[in-house]
Amino acid sequence: MPGGFAPVANAGPCPCGGGAYASCCGPLHRGERSAETAEQLMRSRYAAFARGEIDYLLATHHEPERSESERRRSLEFTCRRSRWLGLKIIATERGGPEDLEGIVRFEARHGDGVLTETSLFQRLDGDWLYIRAQELDNAVGTIK
Ligand SMILES: [Zn+2]
Question: Which domains does the chain have, with CATH numbers?
């Protein structure tokens, strides 16, 4: 498929690899359920990238320094140009139901290669949010 979103039927498997979309990340995208762990949020954000769920990506990324229209534009660009092929969680640290902060290291395969990132998540007002990618040379386990 030349660019564009990979259309994923709601009845099909979840892009994150966690089972059926309807019972995996679908309820999170539809706002029926909140992520209980940082890993769940990470998986649901990956699935949102794969499906072009821009509103969910905006809602789950704490990025107060950029305007919503700017963020939406860059997300639309990223979703259009990337074809996401699979997710592998490599390591998680904290990020459980009782934690306020967590990190998830993952590999996301896409049409042009593999993205490896260590992401920082925080629970703000009860909900897990993606904060930012950690510096690449930060070892897993160092939360600043
Ligand atoms: Zn999923």
Answer: 26-133 (3.10.450.50)
